[in-house]
Design brief:
Helix content of chain B: under 10%
Number of domains of chain B: 1
Strand content of chain A: 25-35%
Strand content of chain B: 35-45%
Largest interface: A-B, 29 and 36 residues
Order of helices and strands of chain A: EEEEEEEEE
Number of helices of chain B: 0
Number of strands of chain B: 16
Structural class of chain A: mainly beta
Radius of gyration of chain A: 15 Å
Largest sheet of chain A: 5 strands, mixed
Oligomer: heterodimer
Structural class of chain B: mainly beta
Helix content of chain A: under 10%
Number of helices of chain A: 0
Shape of chain B: globular
Strand order of the largest sheet of chain A: 2-5-7-9-8
Distance between the termini of chain B: 34 Å
Largest sheet of chain B: 7 strands, mixed
């Protein structure tokens, strides 16, 4: 079982606005437990929903943290100010100072 | 006062029908209930109810800490068909000012089968404040229904909310008669959509309430201050 602090809604094909978190406090939160961002399901690629390709809502998640504090176990990538973005194959790997985390299927960025 | 709430078993309907239920339904059963006024729901504890602990159009005006519309209530062990929310609270439709901004505050929920808290109301801004959620299956979340998809003044805000995962209370108590282990989440991403949902959803397809089935609005701002995980 992997519990996560943040999760993407199970049906968000269109768009999730940037989430801004200020002065968040993490207590005993391991790195991969911060989130898991799923890839857009292939079944979303149908005429009724998204057409010829899956809608890309989950591929464009941005969680922005500023002024974060940590106690006990903490993500080794996290600092007071950091961001987490989706594993978007056409974008994420080209963003400077971002690191991929397989357990989250997401990237942390400074 | 102590009461026992039991789901009725006498309804005959098609298999997808969900009987409207809740521990406490407040101005919601016949929504939109603009005649529902002067209602105060404070210091209540609901446990083991079906669908929602508190289901109500009973938000208060933003940043009004004196409001007793819905205050200091607790829900736990809420369960239902594709549901089980500690509280599903929307704006109070009898107060037109809440169209611009409404708040839900001072609420706690633990060990709910679905989400501890969800709101999915029409309006321009929702604020969630001073809540505590412990050991629930899904995270809390907020959604707004707003038809103007490019309106950039639509805001979802959360302040001073504590979310705890596991507790000393086990999910598989010895001789407890149940064992529910699942992947738990603290917070589910919020969103603004063109259309919303009823408070008492009576069909399985739209459930749970936070399952988005509408086009997303593009202009929106989602901000959380001082969350603790």
């Amino acid at each position: 079982m992997t519990n996560t602090v943040f999760a993407v809604g199970s049906f968000v094909p269109d768009y999730v606005a940037m989430h801004e978190f200020y002065d968040t406090k993490f207590i005993d939160v391991e790195g991969d437990a911060v989130t898991y961002i799923y890839d857009p399901p292939k079944k979303w690629a149908n005429i009724k929903d998204c057409g010829n390709f899956p809608c890309t809502g989950p591929a464009n998640i941005l969680l922005s943290f500023k002024g974060s504090k940590f106690e006990g176990i903490r993500p080794d990538y996290a600092t007071a100010d950091f961001q987490i973005i989706s594993n978007n194959p056409g974008f994420s790997q080209y963003v400077p100072e971002c690191e991929f985390h397989k357990g989250m299927n997401a990237w942390s960025c400074e | 006062m102590i009461g026992s709430i039991v789901a009725r078993t006498t309804v005959e309907a098609n298999p997808s029908f969900v009987d409207p239920a809740a521990g406490v339904s407040i101005c919601a059963y016949r929504e939109p209930d603009s005649g529902c006024k002067d209602v105060s729901v404070t210091n209540n504890l609901v446990g083991g109810a079906e669908y929602g602990g508190f289901v109500g159009a009973i938000g208060h005006r933003c940043y009004d800490t004196s409001s007793t519309n819905f205050k200091n209530n607790i829900a736990h062990s809420i369960i239902g068909t594709l549901s089980g929310a500690g509280a599903y609270i929307n704006r109070h439709v009898a107060d037109p000012e809440q169209e611009n901004c409404f708040e839900i505050s001072n609420f706690k929920a633990y060990k709910c089968h679905n989400t501890p808290f969800v709101t999915y109301s029409t309006g321009k801004k929702v604020v969630m404040s001073r809540m505590t959620f412990i050991d629930n299956k899904e995270g809390f979340t907020a959604l707004l229904s707003h038809a103007d998809s490019y309106d950039e003044d639509i805001v979802i805000e959360g302040n001073d909310i504590k979310i705890m995962g596991e507790t000393d209370s086990p999910d598989c108590p010895i001789n407890g008669g149940f064992c529910d282990i699942y992947h738990k989440r603290g917070y589910i991403t919020s969103a603004i959509t063109w259309a919303g949902k009823a408070m008492h959803i009576t069909d399985t397809s739209p459930l749970p309430p936070q399952n988005i089935m509408s086009i997303s609005a593009w202009g929106s701002k989602i901000v959380f201050n001082r969350l603790t995980f």
